[in-house]
Amino acid sequence: MLVHSRAGRWGAWALFAVLFVPLFALPLLVILTASFSTHWSGAFPSGPTTEHYAAAVRGESLQALTTSLVTALSASLLALTFGTWAALAATALRGKGIGRKVLDALFVLPVAVPSVVVGLAVLVAFSQPPLLLNGTRWIVILAHTVLVTAFAYQSVSAAILRLDPMYEQAAASLGARPSYVLLKVRLPLLLPSLNAAAGLCFALSMGELSATMMLYPPDWLPLPVLVFTATDRGSLFTGSALAVVLMAATLVVLLAVSRIRTKASYR
Questions:
Q1: Which residues contact 222 (CB under 8 A, 6 or more apart)?
Q2: DSSP letters spanning 17-54
Q3: Which of 170, 210, 231, 257 is least buried, going by the fewest C-beta atoms within 10 A?
């Protein structure tokens, strides 16, 4: 820490607790408590039960969780592919100011506007032939890809700027083809950043609601939409259990990605 005195460190931890507990920890604790309750008429919940979780891991809820996982994984892989390709292409535009700025603007635009606008744009663009995706799962995956690609692009672009060109130059001087340098030198060096970008894209896709509400077909219902509909009907305790399941599934995948990133960093 930048604070070296003992009193200063205790003060910094106290300030952190004052800001973190009411703003982040307490709301999550309330949701967790509500997910195990049947009533909350007083200061504390009552009627402890696990029935909400029994319902949250079967039937429509389990299908919605599977839908969210498939959507997030698909969107993350597509976003990582397109974002990495664009970031590598942007490297060639370094020093050509206008081209690099235009490319950066194109990829940042989806996160510079509300996600509901992106959802509407995708809905209008793909509701007519020749690319008729409206009413299919693919329009949801496409919208999520558009929303999270910017984060993959920015993460990989920042990592490329930190790469030491000495490794690529050494490989090229030994006669390695550009494709070999890309696959065997540059991409392995970018692996930790690629894993971090994949985790960020996955987490953002798992929690996306605004654009999804405008696009999802009846047979492709993601879990965030189910959480919203449950709470909108007044089923707050069921919605809380679904939200906890959503958080747990997201954290499990992120922990798995972090293990891959740790091994890649060590290697």
A1: 64, 67, 68, 71, 140, 208, 212, 216
A2: HHHHIIIIIHHHHHHHHHHT-SB--SSS-BS--SHHHH
A3: 170
222: left (phi over 0), alpha (psi -120 to 50) or beta: beta
Residues 56-85: b if buried by 16+ CB within 10 A, e if exposed: beeeebeebbebbbebbbbbbebbbebbbe
Residue 2: inside a domain, yes or no? no
* Inside any domain, residue 42: no
* Domain count along the chain: 1
Runs of H (alpha helix) within 40-186: 51-56, 59-91, 97-112, 115-125, 137-162, 166-173, 178-181
pLDDT tens sequence across 7-28: 767 877 787 777 777 777 778 8
- The pTM for the full model equals 0.85
DSSP state of 218: T
- Domain range spanning residue 120? 54-266
Nearest alpha-carbon partner for 40 in 99, 223, 49, 206: 49
pLDDT digits (tens, 9 = 90+) for 41-76: 766 777 788 888 888 888 899 999 999 999 999 999
Could you tell me if residue 139 is inside a domain? yes
18 found inside a domain: no
Q: How many CA atoms lie within 13 A of 241 on its CB side?
A: 21
Nearest CA-CA partner of 195 in 263, 140, 93: 263
Q: 198-220 burial string, b = 16+ CB within 10 Å, else e?
A: bbbbbbbbbbbebbbbbbbeeeb
Tell me, what CATH number does 92's domain have? 1.10.3720.10
